[in-house]
Amino acid sequence: xxxxxxxxxxxxxxxxxxxxxxxxxxxxxxxxxxxxxxxxxxxxxxxxxxxxxxxxxxxxxxxxxxxxxxxxxxxxxxxxxxxxxxxxxxxxxxxxxxxxxxxxxxxxxxxxxxxxxxxxxxxxxxxxxxxxxxxxxxxxxxxxxxxxxxxxxxxxxxxxxxxxxxxxxxxxxxxxxxxxxxxxxxxxxxxxxxxxxxxxxxxxxxxxxxxxxxxxxxxxxxxxxxxxxx
Length: 230
Known about the structure:
Strand order of the largest sheet: 3-4-5-6
Helix content: 40-55%
Shape: globular
Largest sheet: 4 strands, mixed
Order of helices and strands: HHEEHHEEHHEHE
Radius of gyration: 22 Å
Number of strands: 6
Distance between the termini: 45 Å
Oligomer: single chain
């Protein structure tokens, strides 16, 4: 069941006049809230299905507790910290976190100062930092893959990570695992390493390890249809 306060907020956002909020932002926020509502309904259904395994019941057989819908061994402390943080957020703060804010980076997540969260700066791209002065342009993924050299990929990742951190970024939107290179006309084939999955996997891992050794969070990507861009 969709929480009542979310439904009210959905209606309120939908009826906002243009003078209060630009249409594009109103539509984006509306889409995010609808997705959140649908996600909550799906989560509830999953919890009910799993209740026999993950829940505890009182003497009358009523469900009294459900564990968080999270998996992974060794992440217990992170799950606990994240759950504690989210439980203290207001609805407005949650919306702001998933919507983003205006700022100097490609993606900007605003701070929640009262909880000690200073915000995040997400920056492109897979071979250099975008929208920055005096930024290096590192060899493309395709060029690195042509060397078949794990160490080269690792060092490249370290150097990229160091520059992203030096420019104030927290998350680097890269490296790129695709496009697959199935078409020689693909205008973004150079961003990825190779259509060979083994070679891409090896160099992808080395690049990420090198980047994160410098204190930047790597955000692996690429959408499947990039090979169709010319």
